[in-house]
Amino acid sequence: MPKRTDIKKILIIGSGPIIIGQACEFDYSGTQACKALKEDGYEVILVNSNPATIMTDPTLADRTYIEPITVEMVEKIIEKERPDALLPTMGGQTALNVSVKLAEAGILDKYGVEMIGAKLPAIKKAEERELFKQAMYKIGLEVPKSCQVKTFAQAMEVIETISFPAIIRPSFTLGGTGGGIAYNRQEYEEMVRFGLECSPVSELLIEESVIGWKEFELEVMRDKNDNVVIICSIENLDPMGVHTGDSITVAPAQTLTDKEYQNLRDASIRIIREIGVDTGGSNIQFSVNPANGKVYVIEMNPRVSRSSALASKATGFPIAKIAARLAVGYTLDEIANDITKKTPACFEPTIDYVVVKIPRFAFEKFPKADPTLTTQMKSVGEAMAMGRTFKEAMQKALRSLEIGSFGFDKVIRKTRKELIFNPTEPELDTIKSMLKTPRQERIWYVCEAMRAGLHVDEIHELTGIDRWFLNNLREITEIEEGIFWQAKAGEISPEILRKAKEAGFSDVKIAELSGRTAEEIRTLARENGINPVFKTVDTCAAEFEAFTPYLYSTYERPFYNISDKSKAASQCEAAPTDRQKVLILGSGPNRIGQGIEFDYCCVHASFALREDGFESIMINCNPETVSTDYDTSDRLYFEPLTFEDVMAIVDREKPYGVIVQLGGQTPLKLSVPLEKAGVRILGTSSDSIDMAEDRERFDLLLERLALKRPASGIARSIDESVNIAGSIGYPVMVRPSYVLGGRAMEIVYDETSLIDYMTRAVEASPEHPVLIDCFLQNAVEIDVDCISDGATVVIGGIMEHIEEAGVHSGDSACSIPPYSLPAGILDEIRRQSKILALELKVVGLMNVQYAVKDSEIYVLEVNPRASRTIPFVSKAIGRPLAKLATQLMVGKKLKDLGFTEEVTPPYISVKEAVFPFIKFPGVDILLGPEMKSTGEVMGIARDFGGAFAKAQIAAGNRLPLKGMVFISVRDSDKADIVEVARDLADLGFSLIATGGTARYLQQKGISVETVYKVTEGRPNIVDRIKSREVAMVINTSFGAKSAADSYSIRRSSLDVGLPYFTTVAGARAAAQGIRALLKGELGVTSLQEHHKALR
Fold it and tell me: What would the mean pLDDT of 67-77 be, rounded to a whole number?
């Protein structure tokens, strides 16, 4: 059957900001859906609040609404656009939940909108735990023993029938939010309360534990004719009890017998049919008892999921693209496979390699967080690697994480020379504890346990990891041992070197084991003919030719070809062309400080290069992203972003140049070694980048240009740091050099805290000194993004931060255009930005951060590269800055591109950060110089209040329209909070405050009720918050003691879902936002309409 002709206009709902459990895999799936539907002639309307995505680029959909994803706002878009259909399955749990609410509220029926891809009954049957359980029983499948509860009292009754440990699973949440494993009654009661809060329908499933069972996932697709295909099987290396997003996963499944796999396959087909997903992809999770083979169905996602992105990249099968086309009436046999161009989509993918996905965590950002991995997801990103064997893929995945590990490093007595060692009793206890309790480091402890003499069986008993995986890891440790002893004897044999490279060992790791340099290992390998070859991802295990160059490296043992028996050789499938080509280095796995914004820039670079006639080649290892889609670039190498792996591609492709300034810190770190190796770096030179990063060189530059910076110094020892801080005066800002996302950056208030910091910070960046700056209290921070061709500089956007200086720029809300600074200050900021760009000889993008205090402008830092604000600025001003910068890097001028003047929009754009605090009980939500946000949203309106209100709604920080506001501020903020308090009172809010703040406000004639601090008695402010008497919290603190005293106020606000503001500037913006909401002025306008107003 051909596509449907009765629908013309389709609404796609995106997933909103990047959060733990819902990351940029939905940018990938939404982008694919938009492209596929537009190619088929449909008019596509998109709503998504995330400005950092390619999906919200104005060229992707016909109309793009960067608006909050709420029922109210989506209804306004439906009313305005009148779509024929809604596709709810491309935006993760966010899109699914809003779609369900739209349907249940009768809004879809009211406007005649059909839900396609998955109907409401199917979504509810898959998502509502009790309905799903009954559906499984109906088709003869088992699920863990469980009961559905909607109240705390019901949960207390249920636990009498289910023994501990018990699993708590909230309904309609993502990433296991609010869930966990309770081992006793106290934990159970806490988790039940929290889970009921997190579930949008106040519903939990209390489930018997299957901890220790093996976990498998199958990606399944179905069309309207009931054709079903299995795209990929995925096995979790970690057993049940660890969320699949936090587990190391392997595709295809490695430890199932053929019969076991066929049973899961048959069960998946029955499940997708019973649930009734008409068309599209679904992810189905199973647990298998390793003792007797008993199978339980765990859950099903009736939508494109995180694992769908992994399965797509693992197989080359574009699940989201095909799901979108199935939703509009095509059948699997009618859709061609883009890679082979011969097989239809009903031809199940087959892979002749192994894929390993490994999660990336950010516990270093949240020192008080519990690092134990449970059923609630905690990872912030992931890396994927491919190899001919599990060992090769596993070791490539480890170095793809970019955590400084190039293999299975020592974790006990790290400086010991020998590999095999006899652990002391405390060391053995540590090893066993780290094996028993799943944490991010466990996989390294597995290999360390083997070096310490533990048997595979004992490790299996402690971890529950299948012996097949453990034996593969044991073989890796045996190769390590062989290299170590051969090197000690004076020579590494070609045979063990080849064996190591085939097992995925990096040059750096072999060098470390052998006491040589990585360059010496690289030379030795080449001399012995040990070179990587590249294989294609072709969906069919080489049964058909692949027309899409999607490649991975492997070390293949040379073999004799039947057509040429004279010489053994490896077979490389790269087949480079003779076109002029440019390599783009991607940004690697998502992490706090380096996320989807940089992927956006890399994708734009690829688009620009293809338009300008260059062959674009992408190198990246992140399976969630648009950059690793097989049709984004001319050629895709799915490889780790290390010097060794990039140079292997450079040697094969021989590019005209490499772009390093768009992927964040990851490619920047490679720029100097690549340049030394003779590779041309396009755009701003490595020397200019180093001048901006090196504090001493940068200070000289500022002196030369007569620009101010805060008083500062560079410390290489504790004594030096104490002397510098003493001369500058406390508080001071301290940070290691060469870091991203404010890593290990702190505000220090006294000498004791400084000494404590210096003992910890050395590990954050051991080869670089610590920078100490005067902390400018109550300054306004400004971000500037500009673009330069070396001769002309154009300001892209000037962003005024809403939080004052001291909050990391990635965590602060900001506004384009600035909303409070005078024109004279802004003109001077423009002048300083331009002379900095010209002095640094910037070709491409540059970001400058300033602080304005008492009308003085201070330069905080300069980054001659793409910043995380580039997508936001590009969408605010209607110019694709990353694309333009790429064109400058390959020789064009700003004049040629028609961009020579700054754009000043007639509307306000506000960016707001989104935080993962809810995932980490016990962590303080107070913001500081170290970045903690995982994502961002954007609000656009004609006035600042409306834009800020939209941004808050989109970030889930819904502003109240009535009720009680709590205010408690430090002494230095009391004068500034008066205006805010008066505004809130005028808007009809009642005010409560702690003693000092209350007295001050009362003296200013404002009616305020006094409430106890936590330390003053009961009922105190936390009691009032927990009793839900408070509608909004404003709480500022100064110094470590003040922050600690008010921690419980901030944390309880978060736990009950209250909007909270920890700066006066934030509170002032909130008052303006509330005023805009009360006026009822929040309309919806597409990005395309906004941009039309700029012309």
Answer: 96
pLDDT tier, 175 (very low <50, low <70, confident <90, very high otherwise): low
Q: What is the pLDDT of residues 481-497, one digit of tens each?
A: 999 999 999 889 999 99
SS3 assignment, position 322: helix
Has residue 1039 got a pLDDT over 70?
A: no
CA–CA separation, 766 and 763 (whole Å) = 5
Residue 853 near residue 782, CB atoms below 8 Å? no
| Separation of alpha carbons 434 and 441, rounded Å | 8
Q: Nearest 5°: CA angle at 1088, between 1084 and 1090?
A: 60
Within a 10 A sphere around the Cβ of 678, how many other Cβ atoms? 8
Do the Cβ atoms of 384 and 641 come closer than 8 Å? no
* Sign of the dihedral defined by the CA atoms of residues 408, 414, 419, 421, in that order: negative
Distances (CA, A) of 309 to 231, 357, 632, 663, 731: 11, 11, 15, 20, 46
Contacts of 313 (CB under 8 A, 6+ apart): 355, 384, 623, 628, 638
Helix (H, G, I), strand (E, B) or coil at 350: strand
Could you tell me which residues are beta bridge partners of residue 387?
A: 354
Angle at 30 between CA 29 and CA 34, to 5 degrees: 120
Mean pLDDT of 236-256: 94
Asked if residue 121 has a cis previous peptide bond (ω within 30° of 0), the answer is no
Among the listed residues 802, 752, 800, 804, the one whose alpha carbon sits nearest the alpha carbon of residue 970:
804
**Closest to 589 (Cα-Cα) out of 552, 623, 626:** 623
The C-alpha atoms of residue 687 and residue 172 are separated, in whole angstroms, by: 51
Q: How many whole angstroms separate alpha carbon 937 and alpha carbon 49? A: 5
Coil, strand or helix: which one is 757?
helix
Kindly report the pTM of this predicted structure: 0.93
Decide: helix, strand or coil at residue 1063: coil
Alpha-carbon radius of gyration of the chain: 29
Dihedral over Cα of 693, 698, 699, 700: its sign: positive
Contact at 8 Å (CB) between 845 and 870? yes
Tokens 């392997």 correspond to what residue? 250
Residue with tokens 């909230």: 170
With vertex at residue 250, the alpha carbon angle to CA 247 and CA 251, rounded to the nearest 5 degrees, is: 140
Backbone angles phi, psi at 1036, to 5 degrees: -115, 150
CA-nearest of 710, 807, 719, 713 to 758 is 719
Give the per-residue pLDDT at 250: 97
Confidence of residue 639 (pLDDT cuts 50, 70, 90): very high
Which 3 state secondary structure label does DSSP give 492?
coil
Task: Compute the distance between CA of residue 57 and CA of residue 30 in angstroms, rounded to an integer.
Answer: 12
Least confident among 99-108, 763-772, 1015-1024: 763-772
Candidates 281, 302, 294, 260; CA nearest to 135 is 302
CA angle 810–811–812, rounded 5-degree value: 100
* Distance set, CA 706 to CA 590, 832, 1026 (Å): 38, 10, 53
Q: Which two tokens stand for residue 952?
A: 């808050």
**Per-residue pLDDT for 601 more than 90?**
yes
Structure tokens, 1092: 């039309």
User: How far is it, in rounded angstroms, from Cα 1052 to Cα 895?
Assistant: 54
How far from each other are the two terminal CA atoms of the chain, in whole angstroms? 44
Helices (H), 304-401: 306-315, 319-327, 390-400
pLDDT averaged over every residue in the chain: 90
Q: Judge whether residue 140 has pLDDT over 90.
A: yes
Tens-digit pLDDT profile for residues 891-943: 999 999 999 999 999 999 999 999 888 778 778 777 888 888 899 999 999 99
DSSP-derived 3-state class of residue 343: coil
